[in-house]
Structure formats: C-alpha cells, structure tokens
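USER: Study each token:
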Amino acid sequence: CSQYVPLLKKVYLTKQPQVLELHIPEQYGKAILMVKYVPVFNEQGDIQNVFGITTDITDRKKIEEALQRSEQRLAAELDAARHLQQISTKLIQAGDIPALYDQILDTITAILRTEFASIQILVPENGTGGDLKLIGYRGFDEQTTKYWDTVRPTSKCPCGMAMHTGQRVIVPDIRTCDFMVGSKDLDMYLQNGIHAVQTTPLFSRAGKVLGMLSTHWREPHEPTASELRVLDVLSRQAADLIEQKRAEEALRANEARYRQLLTMLPVAVFTVDAEGIITFYNQSAEKIWGRSPQAG
C-alpha cells in the first residue's frame, strides 16, 4: 500500500511508534485495518528494525459507529423532551393560544430537522365532512399558503387523505405516491422543493377529529420511531389547544346569549359583588329605578 512507505519513513524520522487506520475498498474485501509500526533499537540507540502489527478493527469500528449514532439519538430525544416540557408548561399557563401554535411549529421543525410544517383545524360546518383551515405554518411561500388555505376531504394530498381515513398518512417520496399522481397538490409540493410528507390527525379527548399536524421534507424521508413519538406528543398538545380555544369561544358565546336574555326580561335583574357593587343590570331595572345605576 502506498501509505505504508510514508508511515515507515516517519518512524525512522521521529523514532516513535506510528499508527495508520487503513480503509480497504469493497472490491478488495472491504475492511478497516489498524497498522502499527514500532521501532526496535540497538545498543547505540539507533533503529535496528521496525516491528509491524496489523489488526482488523472492522467490527470494533462498526460498534463505535453504532454507539455514536445511539448517543446522537439520545441527545436528540433529550432535546426533544426539553422542548416538549417547555410547551407543556406554557400550555398549563395558556393565555396566548396562537403563540403556542407557533411554539409547536418551531419545536417540530427543530426536532424533525425540517423547515416545513403546518397546523390545520377542521371546520365541520363547511360542506360534507367539513374543511381543513390553515391556521399556522412554516416554510410555505404566499402562493402555497393561499392554495392550502382550505383543504377538502377529496383533496389529493396527505392531509386530505388523513381527513378521509382518520389515520396518520406518511408519504416517504411524493413522486411514487399513488393517490397524488397527476394532481395539482403534487405540483405544489414539487414547486416548493418538498419530496416527503407526513400528516397526523389531531383528536379531541372524545375521539373527534379537530385538525391536522403536518411536516414536510426536501428529501425523501420516512420518520423514525422516535420522530413519530415526538409527533404523537405534539399532536396531543396541539389538539388540547384547539379544544381549549373552542371551549373558550363557546363560553364567551354562552355568556353573550345569557346577557342578552337577561337584558330582554320584563323583570328587573341585576347582579352585585361581595362589596355590594352593581356589576350588571338590565333595561327593566333601569326603568323601575328611573335612572341608570353606576356599575362597577
């Protein structure tokens, strides 16, 4: 091997042992060898000869590489757990729900190493089966955002298919996806440089579909088991946010109807707090009192 001679010269020059990691090409039996040259000295301190040792370290290198990959996965999962814990804490203290949607999108793009992601909510009153409405995204241009602003169950895209089946849809390579062949959706993905997609349905605690959480990759990609676990956790958090927002909207609507009903009653109705301060009164109370009481 041409690398042996320079290594041998270095032994004579430095009078120190030298080590070489040699990668044998596949056509010669693909292996990784460790070559070590150790100088042997005479009584005058000069190199008398060089002792050479060659060891096949192929299996050891494979183990080291597998261990390194395992450590990298562990580090990634710990980082993901840290991000998820932060979102969980913010969810408990939720005040600005749209900001939490943004946090989920930022987290999912960071952990899954992609620049594309989206959250959609189901609007059940729109058409048969409802429509998906885009409420947050990362990476899409203006044209793409407008195109996917509303998605129907008949749409030839993963989120449309997930809405139709109620199951997660994974497309490792959109160019080989049967249900997207010849569709406008396929053209839009390719136009954005997207070649892989996954869509995970968001379910309420009662099992009803609330929306979709999707991620997209520039290269063909199939999510790993650890990535799917992250998606499951983030999907649960996104679904809880949607449920919380809808519950708040329903509560406000009920309060508005309740106040309207009280306002129209033919009897005087008013409320006071613990200090006896009026907090609400209706029109009948105003007529009976002959004046408008000062609330608050």
